[in-house]
Structure prediction request, 152 residues.
Amino acid sequence: MTYENLDAKLINALLGDGRASLRSLAEELDVSVTTVSNHLRDLENESVVEGYSPRVNYDAIGYDVTAIIQLKVEGSALPSITDRLEEQKQMITVYEVTGDYDVIAVGKFRDTDGMNEQIKELLTDTDIRESNTSVVLNPVAENEQFNLKLTQ
Prediction:
């Protein structure tokens, strides 16, 4: 029995069904339940697999406005601005980035009025020098993950 690529195969199987039982994963991968359990525990301990959560279709529950917010921030204020954005429940992604802007945040909103209100409140912070907000017209691909390539 060879375990070559087992971790990658396990991750790919979990991407297909994050709720799969250890038994079904073992059957799919043709290894013992103990082997799957040990490898999965190692992947979790190494922070390769960081929890199991549902994929929520925000549009289906009324959050059908997605905004991309770009901010230029005073250098020393960057951590406080990103912390503030991260604390806002509707900001689903916050990045510190290189380029013309310092921060890019993605938010989900019920409507443009709610989006506008939250952005205006954010922009009262004097450490934000400039902002640019884009509203997503059509999400072509969103929250996608990819299968790991198996080595030969």
